[in-house]
Amino acid sequence: MVRAGLTAERVTIAGAELADQVGLERLSMSQVARRLGVKDASLYTHVRGLEDLRGRIALLAADEKTLRIAEATAGRAGKDALVAYANAWREYAHRHPGRYAATQAAIRLDPELAAAAPGPRRAVELTYGMLRGYGLSEPDLTDAVRLLRSTFHGFVALEAAGGFAHQRAPQRSWDRALDALHTLLEHWPTSRDGDSS
């Protein structure tokens, strides 16, 4: 029997909440069914399986993270925008570790759902817009986006894994990393290859 009011959105939210609690890799359809008070089979009316659910969680998380970044960076430019962007990214990763993991994992997304989801597209627009404030254009924009993503994700992943055991507080290193990124973006080296490939 399908519980009244059960929808793909409710299943996704329940899955996202569980992913934050137990970890994305440990998430199972049975756990989600128990959380919603239904039999496992009832979920398959709304999602095709665990991979589909993880994809939906990734899209939900992308929307949420992008909204927080947009709110944090609104009306800001230069270093203020960079710091607000980075802090919103890190805070989302801390508060929602399972959802965040879904945004970084190689998950096969339903093409129709992905096309309709505004989060990933808006994330690209926000990031490129912020970096254009530093006077960057292609191919440097793409390289800078990759640098920021690598730095932010690398830091939060190491932090979550307990990788910063040194007595210096991670927050101090985070602040210095953002100072360094700002300086680098202001003095970005000219591209040598001259193409956008």
Salient structural properties:
single chain, mainly alpha, 69% helix, globular
Summarize the structure in words:
The protein is mainly alpha-helical. Helices cover 69% and strands 0% of the residues. It has 10 helices and no strands. It has helices spanning 8-22, 29-36, 40-43, 50-73, 78-95, 97-104, 111-116, 118-132, 140-160, 170-186. The longest helix has 24 residues, at 50-73. The chain is globular. The chain starts with 7 loop residues before the first helix and ends in an 11-residue tail after the last helix. The model has no long low-confidence stretch (mean pLDDT 92).
Put the structure in a nutshell.
The chain has helices at residues 8-22, 29-36, 40-43, 50-73, 78-95, 97-104, 111-116, 118-132, 140-160, 170-186. With 197 residues, the chain is mainly alpha-helical.
Give a count of the beta strands, DSSP E runs of length 2 or more: 0
Strand content: under 5%
H/E element sequence: HHHHHHHHHH
Mean pLDDT: 92
Number of discrete helical segments: 10
The profile of the biggest β sheet is: none
Task: Indicate the low-confidence ranges by residue numbers.
Answer: none
Q: If you compute it from the alpha carbons, what radius of gyration comes out, rounded to the nearest whole angstrom?
A: 19 Å
Main structural class = mainly alpha
